[in-house]
Structures are given as C-alpha cells and as structure tokens.
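Trying the structure run again after the queue cleared.
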Amino acid sequence: MSENNETSVMGGILKRAYSTVFYENWPIWLGGILIGIMSVITFAWARPFGVVGGLRNWADWFFNLIGVYSHAPLSPLISTNSILTLGLLWGAFGAALMSKQFAIRMAPGRELIKGIVGGSLLGIGSAMAGGCNVGGFYIATSALSFSGLAMMVGLIVGAYLGLRYLYWEMMNLPHKPPKAGTGKKGPNLLVTEPYIGAAVFLAAIVAALIYVSEAYARVGGLLLCGITFGVIIQRTRFCFVRCFRDPFMTGEGDMVRAVTYSIIISILGFAALKWTGLRGEEVYVTQTFWFGSLVGGIIFGFGMLIAGGCGTGSVWRAGEGHIKLMVVVACFALTNSLFKALIKSSEGFKALIGNRVFLPDFLTYKWTIVILVAIFAAYALIATWNEETDKFTVEM
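Done. Tokens:
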C-alpha cells in the first residue's frame, strides 16, 4: 500500500472515531456509569460534586458587589463550589462546540417567563433541601443521608404535579410554536466550531496547570472533574428531570435505570471512603431531614418541570446556548442565595428545616447499603414494569 493510501486510511479511521465521540450521542446507561465513577473520584480527590453551591457563590459575590450583602464570599476563582459548577458549564460548552451542537437559541416570551418562575422555584427548593437534584438527592443519598431519600420522594411528587400543570397549560393556554429557523447558525460557524471547542479544552488544561503552579492543585483537579462531568452529561444528554418525569409522561424507564446504575456506584464508593475513614462520616449528610428535603424536593420537582431543567440540566443546556436555561440559571442562583440567607436569619426556620440523619448510625454500614441498593433496584424495576404497562402514565 502506498504512503498516500495509508495516510488516507488513517484519516478515515480518525474521522470515524471523532464522529463516534462527538457526533453520535453516547448511551444513557454509559452516562450513568461514568457519572457514578466520577462522583466517587471527585469525592476522593477533594469533595462531593455539586451545582447549587457554585451558583450560590456567584450570586453571593454579585450581591456583595452591589452592596446587598456586607460579608464577602470566597472568590469564585478559588471556591471549590464555584469551580465545580464552572467546570460543568465549561465542559458542556466545549463538548457542544466539538459536536457542532452549540447555538444561541431564543425562546418565546412565555417560556422566558416560565424560566424566571421555574428558576426561582429551583432556588427556593434547593435552599430548603440543602442542594438541588445533585446535592440534595444524588450526593446526599450517596453520602448515606436519610435526607436524600426524603428529597427523592419530594422530587417524584413535584414532578407529577409539574406535569399535571404543563398538561393543563397545553389545553387551556395554547400558544404559537416558534418560527422555523430559530437558533440556526451560519455554515462558517459550523465549520469552525470544533476548532473553537478544541481551544476551549486547551484553555481548561492551561487553567488547571495555573492552579497547580499557584499551589491550588486541589482546585485545579476539581476544575478538570467538573469539565469531565460537563462532557459526559452533554454527550449522553443525561437528564435527572427525565428520571422523575418520564414514568408519568411517556412511561420510558431508560433514564430511571441510568440514574439507578449511577447512584448505586456512587453509594458504594462513598460508603467505602467513609467506612475506611478516608472521608468524614458527616460529610454532605445534609441537615434537612425531613421538612426541608421533602417540601424543598416538591418545590424543586415542580420548578424543574416548569423550567425545563434541573440543577445540572439547566447549566449544561445553558452551555449549549439556550437562552431560557440561561435565565433559569440566573434566577436559580439569585433566589437560592436570598432564600438561604432568609433561612440562616431565622432560628425557627432553621429548626423547621430539619436535622442530620446518618443512616449507618441506626442501621450499620452493611444494612444501609443493602437497603439503599434494594430501594433503587426496586425503583428501576417498577419503572421497567411501567414501561410495559403504562400503569403510572398520566393522560392529558
């Protein structure tokens, strides 16, 4: 074979590999497994993954800048909360460019209003629950906190109520669909997007190296962890909203199964780190059981249906250029900051929110893991059964 032919064959192989990684969506189940593994790695490296803490840090910084808050928060450039959320946005933005899926997508006026309302509900619910669908449910459950299960119940109830509202809106408040062509990009941008995406990821590596050189290796590592989450979630279209909405709307159970795989991996990893003493037992055992987690979960679950995104979902879709989700993220951050400040200002409110409940204190590590795995296996089994029977599917 001639040298030119060999070069052509290698070029074809590389193009197919690129297409597989960036032009074809990854399986959802793979996303669940990778997110579970990354959750454990992030916790082992420094701290649990989260979204709302970073958003609140940004809002706290803004309110301090304009004089609403007198106490200055930790700089968003070194706050581990901020860096993880920034990494998620950074990774999703870069992956969207590499896959030619980035576009500025405007939304109708009513959808923007729903973004404001939904984002505000996300902020209030997450402030009460000690985190969003990630921190308040996924990570709290992984950390063996009873609050995570309480928020899970709240999310299911809130998603059901939110879906009922959306059906009511469709029947009683019809609106014109957006004009064709909204959000389209010129051909030149499509051609250059992968190169811009490569520059985005190169900048991420440079930023991480700068953190290391400035003795912030922990922060630099978390930035790379957040970027990895962003890439995985964007390429798999991983969406916690679907985990709680689809069983009622379409009957599909693939996202429920993906979240089940993910959270079981995360539970096992967190339990191992805590049981061996590598991480403190009280880490991310949120002080929100039961009222804060349950009621906050209901508010958050309803809000994520109105907003069209949860904590991670809103951020990574904002990274793809969705204007509505950018509005959601801004309102989410601002209202979470304000409502968290309100909770802290009232001893009665703080007492109402709840207490910490670390399950191994009552059940031992072994039985905690057995029970949690059984709960999520049962949830996946019921979702699969519902997929065949449509038993819980809500009709319009």
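The chain has 16 helices and no strands. Worth checking whether this holds up in the mutant runs.
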